[in-house]
């Protein structure tokens, strides 16, 4: 009986530790594409749900749970405020603001959709992305720029949080 109890405890502990939301890497991906037809920059930021939830709990409300059925307006308000503070974009050396279109959850990722309207004649774009650096020191942010026939990716770290692409 004691052996059965020990085996059962071992199996339950293995299952419990295998289903936690921990992941090995702390990374976000922000993709910025230019739509010539709409004259806009279309942005998708992908952030692990558990990391984003941890940040929003520490920064805004300790009871936040990121799920489709939970307080959508308040969560989007916090997400918009945080992303606006941590994702800065300059086009032709001028700061531009994005519109927060919305978010969705797929598997363990939050997809945040943003747009910057009325953009034309792009000579340069600079992106500063410090998402999650304030709560996860090992965080890395990948920025993918797909603009005007150029396709570049950058790895941003807490001590190197900007990238730039020139079209001259």
Record the SSE blueprint:
Layout (H helix, E strand, L loop, with lengths): L1 H17 L8 E9 L4 E9 H11 L12 H15 E5 L2 E3 L2 E8 L2 E8 L7 E6 L10 E8 L2 E7 L5 E5 L2
Parallel strand pairs: 1-8
Antiparallel strand pairs: 1-2, 2-6, 3-4, 3-7, 5-6, 7-10, 8-9
Could you explain how this protein is built, in words?
With 168 residues, this protein is of the alpha+beta class. It has one domain. Helices cover 26% and strands 40% of the residues. A six-stranded mixed beta sheet has the order 5-6-2-1-8-9. Strands 4-3-7-10 form a four-stranded antiparallel beta sheet. Strand 5 and strand 6 (109-116) form a beta hairpin. Residues 3-20 have low confidence and may be disordered. InterPro entries: DUF6702. It comes from Winogradskyella echinorum.
State the order of secondary-structure elements, H for helix, E for strand.
Answer: HEEHHEEEEEEEE
Structure classification:
alpha+beta
Task: Tell me the number of helical segments per DSSP (H or I, 4 or more residues long).
Answer: 3
Helix content: 25-40%
Keywords:
168 residues; alpha+beta; six-stranded mixed sheet; 40% strand; disordered N terminus; Peptidase E; DUF6702
């Amino acid at each position: 009986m004691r052996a059965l109890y020990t085996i059962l405890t071992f199996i339950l502990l293995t299952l419990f530790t295998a289903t936690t939301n921990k992941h090995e890497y702390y990374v976000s991906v922000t993709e910025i594409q230019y739509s010539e037809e709409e004259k806009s920059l279309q942005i998708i930021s992908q952030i692990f749900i558990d990391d984003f939830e941890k940040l929003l709990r520490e920064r805004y409300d300790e009871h936040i749970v990121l799920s489709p059925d939970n307080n959508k307006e308040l969560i989007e308000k916090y997400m918009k405020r945080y992303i606006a503070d941590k994702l800065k974009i300059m086009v032709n050396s001028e700061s531009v603001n994005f519109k927060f279109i919305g978010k969705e959850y797929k598997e363990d990722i939050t997809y945040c959709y943003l747009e910057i309207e009325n953009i034309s004649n792009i000579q340069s774009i600079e992106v500063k992305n410090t998402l999650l650096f304030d709560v996860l020191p090992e965080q890395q942010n990948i920025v993918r720029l797909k603009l005007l026939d150029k396709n570049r990716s950058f790895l941003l770290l807490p001590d190197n949080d900007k990238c730039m692409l020139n079209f001259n």
